[in-house]
Inverse folding.
């Protein structure tokens, strides 16, 4: 009888025990995955960081990009050596580029930073829009310039990021483009529109990020080698 019970244990009870353990760890893995999105996830369009909305981040990105002289700007940078210039807070900005030639940069990013960058974007200000002396006109012109966006693309470590057309963001209101430029007169009303991605912090190590897109008036293509430390 004892031998029969022993045989029953090994034939039925022990396999069931291992099955239960396997299911437990599978469920636990799903729960952890839900709480911690994969590194390749793109954060939803309505999700901001540190209390800042996506629109607020676009304004801050533009003011950051406009705070440099051309020769010192991360936007004109050909190598990535200026990647860390002017960075602050929980979000690390990645610059676009002047002109339409593909640009490759190598950038060291502190661990724990969200990444925010434009696939393609446009800013309107009185200096580049003679009829944009009111905020309403600036916002409408920025929207009109962005309506023709095409060829959006974004890849992280060789994997395409999804639903790019869902990530159109307008500044929502007008702002002073030169707010961070020391000694510069105000550049307002300024307004922006474009397609932007916000990524959660990447794991430590090397990552490759490629992104870009086109408007009727401009095109950009960036390849970033990101060293997260």
């Amino acid at each position: 009888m004892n031998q029969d019970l022993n045989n029953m244990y090994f034939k039925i009870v022990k396999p069931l025990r291992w099955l239960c353990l396997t299911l437990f760890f599978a469920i636990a893995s799903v729960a952890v995955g839900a709480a911690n999105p994969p590194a390749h996830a793109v954060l939803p369009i309505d999700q901001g960081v540190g209390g800042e909305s996506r629109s607020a981040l676009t304004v801050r990105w533009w003011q950051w990009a406009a705070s440099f002289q051309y020769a010192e700007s991360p936007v004109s940078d050909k190598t990535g050596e200026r990647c860390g210039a002017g960075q602050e807070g929980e979000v690390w900005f990645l610059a676009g580029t002047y002109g339409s030639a593909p640009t490759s940069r190598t950038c060291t990013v502190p661990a724990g930073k969200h990444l925010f960058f434009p696939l393609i974007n446009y800013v309107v200000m009185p200096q580049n829009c003679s009829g944009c002396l009111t905020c309403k006109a600036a916002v409408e012109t920025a929207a009109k310039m962005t309506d023709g966006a095409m060829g959006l693309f974004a890849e992280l470590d060789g994997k395409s990021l999804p639903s790019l057309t869902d990530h159109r963001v307008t500044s929502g209101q007008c702002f002073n483009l030169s707010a961070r430029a020391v000694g510069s007169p105000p550049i307002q009303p300024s307004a922006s529109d474009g397609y932007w991605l916000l990524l959660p912090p990447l794991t430590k190590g090397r990552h490759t990020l490629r992104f870009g897109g086109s408007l009727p008036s401009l095109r950009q293509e960036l390849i970033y080698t990101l060293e997260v430390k």
In short: The chain has two domains: 1-36, 38-228. Residues 1-39 have pLDDT under 50 and may be disordered. DSSP finds three helices and nine strands in the chain. The two ends are 63 Å apart (CA to CA).
